[in-house]
Amino acid sequence: MIKSIFAKKLLAVKAIKLQPNEPFTWASGWKSPFYCDNRKTLSYPDLRSFVKLELCHIIQEQFPEAEAVAGVATGAIAQGALVADQLGLPFCYVRSKAKDHGMQNLIEGQVAEGAKVVVVEDLISTGGSSLKAVEALRQAGVEVVGMVASYTYGFPVAEEAFREAGVRLVTLTDYEAVVEEALKTGYISQDDVPLLAEWRKNPSEWRQ
Predict the structure, then answer these.
(1) Banded model confidence at residue 205, pLDDT cuts 50, 70, 90
(2) Would you call 21 helix, strand, or coil by DSSP?
(3) Model's pTM, two decimal places?
(4) Which of 147, 144, 81 is nearest to 117 (CA)?
């Protein structure tokens, strides 16, 4: 199963770190026993190609109507461009905020009005920045047919946000698959699972 295979690969290159007893602090200020950096996959040619091809397979199977690809800055710019190149589709990317100089673009690149676009993201946490990119594309007059991403934490707040925004999300792997693989390899123990589950249920309040 692709979710397990990719989870194993992420753990192998230490793109995912689990530290139940020594939590990380995210940029949001949240404390977390879990840290994921999918950008590490770009440094390993075989793994980079694996991610590119598997994301392409998802798009071909789930969003065959896609006419262009949009990456979300900054994490998914490289992967999005690789995917668009493989599929032979136009590519653009969405900034987190508009430039304060030049053309003051929020969307970089050219995408035709009315085009059916699939968005590529590297990681989904709350879904806020990902859906902000979707809204920018919609305001630019394109149709977002869905989003593909390497990894999702599967937070309830994100799942609800995607439902409300009417965006279908398909990911290569997720929290459950990573925890399962981490248990198999002894990276974490069964005793760590309840703590991880408690964090995932309410990450914004965990150990604050």
Answers:
(1) confident
(2) coil
(3) 0.92
(4) 144
